Amino acid sequence: MARRQSPTPAGDASQDFVENIVDIDVTSEMEGSFLEYAYSVIYSRALPDARDGLKPVQRRILYMMSEMGLRPDRGHVKSARVVGEVMGKLHPHGDTAIYDAMVRMAQDFSLRLPLIDGHGNFGSLDDGPAAPRYTEARLAAAALTLTDHLDEDVVDFVPNYDNQLTQPDVLPAAFPNLLVNGATGIAVGMATNMAPHNLVEVIAAARHLIAHPDASLDDLMRFVPGPDLPTGGRIVGLDGIRDAYATGRGSFKTRAKVEIEQLSARRTGLVVTELPYMVGPEKVIEKIKDAVNGKKLTGISDIVDLTDRQHGLRLVIELKNGFNPNAVLQQLYRYSPMEDSFGINNVTLVDGQPQTLGLVALLSVYVGHRIDVVRRRTAFRLLKKKDRLHLVEGLLIAIVDIDEVIQIIRSSDEAAAARTRLMSIYDLSEIQANYILELRLRQLTKYSRIELEKEQDELRREIAELEAILGSEERLRGLVSTELGEIAEKYGTPRRTVLLESEAVSPTVAAALAAAPGAKGGKAAPLALEIADDPCWAILTASGQIARTSNQEPLAESGPRSRHDVFRSVVKTSARGEIAAVTSQGRMLRLQVMDMPVLPPMSGLPNLAGGVQAKDFITLLKGESLVAFAPLDEILAIGTVQGIVKRVQPEYPLNREDWEVIALKDKDLVVGVAPAGQDDTELVFLTREAQLLRFSAANVRPQGRTAGGMAGIKLAAGDSVIFFGAVTATDDDAVVVTISGTDGALPGTAPGAAK
Asked: Which CATH number fits domain 535-675: 3.40.50.10780, 3.40.225.10, 2.40.40.20, 2.120.10.90?
C-alpha cells in the first residue's frame, strides 16, 4: 500500500499543511500507469497502421513535406527545416527520432520503393547519415501517391498534440506501402518486422483480391511468391515464407549472390555482388577476418572491396591454391553474415488494435481502406459538381434577362434587398443569388453563355458518372483496381531477389556432394575443403595451353577434344603434386599441379577449351616458349635444334622455382624433352631434311643440370632438328609422320604430301 498527502485547501491559513492520506494499491497503480505508457508507445510511435503502412512519425513527415510543397519537380530543402516543421507542429518527440525516420525513408537499401528523395549523405549499411544541417530532401514521386487527394475528404483529420492544427489519421495510400516497403519497430511487449516486397507483385495480388474477395492464400501466392529485398540476394527455403503468409509469423534464410571467378591464371576467387538484407560489406569483411584469425575459416588468402558507384557492390574473396571454392563458400555461409536469417512478425495496427496478420488479411485491410478512400473521394467530387451545376444553372437564368437583372441590382438600396428581389422574381436560391451579385459584368456576355451551357452539359455527364460509381460496388472496385494497375505500371521494377526452394548447386557440385564420403540415404556429406590428392594428367597442348584433368583415365583413347589443338606433352601426376616445365632456352620451372585449371569433362573426356595460355601462367623471357612438361623425379633426356642431346640427373634445388637445366650454345634452343630413365629407352632425332636417328639412351651418360650435353646427331649444312623424343625398345606402335610444306621440303614429293 502507498499513501498520498494533499496540500492545505486554498484560503486556509491556519496551518501550512493538512495531512490527507489516501491509501492506494501499488500494484493497481503500476499496472494502470504501465498500460497507459504501453498503449502510447504501441499506438503513437512503434507500430505501423495496416492501411497506409506508416508509423505516426513517418505519416507526419510525409504530410508536412506535402504541405510545404516539397514536390519532386521542385528543389530540395535542408533536412533540418523539415525536421523543425514536423517537430514544431505535429510530432513533439525529439528531432533525432524524426530525422532517423526521414533518413530510412530515403535509403534505397532499406525501402524497396523509397518515399523521400535525399540529396547528400543519407548513410550506408555500415555508416550513419550526415547531420540534418548538411543534407537536403524532398518527396519522391512515389510518395505523392500516398498523400494525393487529402483535400477531398478521403480520410479523417485529427487534432495535433496541442489542438491548434489538424493532421490526417491515415494517408490515402494509393499502393500497399506496408507490404512493399515493410516495417520494423519495437513496442512494449511486442515488436514488428515485415519484409519488403515487389510493387508489381503485391498490386497484382491486391487486384486479384478485389476481383475475387474470397481468394485463398494459394491464389495470392501465385502473385506474391515471396519477399523482394532492396539489396537483392537469394532467399533459400520457402516453407518459412508460407508460414508467415498464413499466420503472420515465420522466417527465411537470405544469402549473398556469389560467383566463382578465375581472378588470374593461378588464382580463383569468390566475387560477391549482392548481400543479405541490411548487411553491409564492411561488416562482412570484419566478420570474415575475425573468422580467419580465429581459425574457423580456412582457404582464404585475402578479401578486397572493389565497390564503386558505377559497378555497385563487388567484394573479391581470394582463395588459396588447393582449396575447393564451393567448400569455402559453404564455410562462409556458416561463419559470416553472407548468410542471414530474417524473422517475419507481421504485427500491425488494425482499428487502433495491434494484430498479427497473414498475407490475405493484410491485403484485405488495405483493399478495404482503398475502396473507402475512393468512395469518399467520389462522394466529395459529386457534391462539388452538384454545387457547381447549381451555380451554373442560376447564371444561365440571369443571362437570359441580363438587362433586367442589372436594373434590379441598381435600383436596390442594399445587397440584401437585391438578393431578395432576385430570389423572388427568378426563383433563385440564396446561393445562386449571392453568386450573381458577386459576378463581374464581363462574365455575363453572350460568349459566357455559350461556355456556361457547355459546362452545364459536362457537369451533368460527370455527375451521372460519379453517381454510377457510387451506385455500383462493382464499378467502384473496378476503379480501385484500375488505379492500382496504373501505379504498378508507373513505379514497378523487376524482381531483385531470387527465390530458391532449397540450396542451389551446380551439377558438378551436386555430383561431388553425392559422391562425398559419408553421404547416406541420398543426403550429401559436406564437400572436402581442400582438393584431394587424386591422380590426374598435366597437359600441354600444341597451341600453348596448359591444364590438368579431373582424373587419370587413359588419354590415349580420348585424343584431342578441340578441333584446332592436340596434346603436345602429357605427364602423369596428382592434384597436389609438382611437375617441371622446360622452356626453349633451357630453363626448368617448378609447377604446382593444383594451380592449373581443371579441364571440364565432355562426354567423359577432357575439353581443351578449358585451359589457359602458358604465357599467362608462367613468366617467360623474351623469345622463350614452353617446350614440354616433365616429372621432377626421373632422368630426363633433352634434345636441341643443333642436335645436342643430354640426360639430366633429377638433382634439382629445393628452394628455387626455376633453374638452368642445360647449358646451350649460341642460337641453340631446346626442341624436345622426354623421360629416359629406363635402360630399354631409345631416343629419336628427326631433322628438317627428313633425316631420322634412333639410338639407345644408355649411350648418353647422365650429367648434372649445369652441363652442356653431347653431340647427338650430325646435321648437314642448313639442316636442323625439328623433333626430339623417346620410345621404348619394345614399342612396336611408334610411328613417324612427315608432311611436306613446299616442293623442297621432301625431295620428290608434292606440297602437302604426307608419309
From this structure: 2.120.10.90
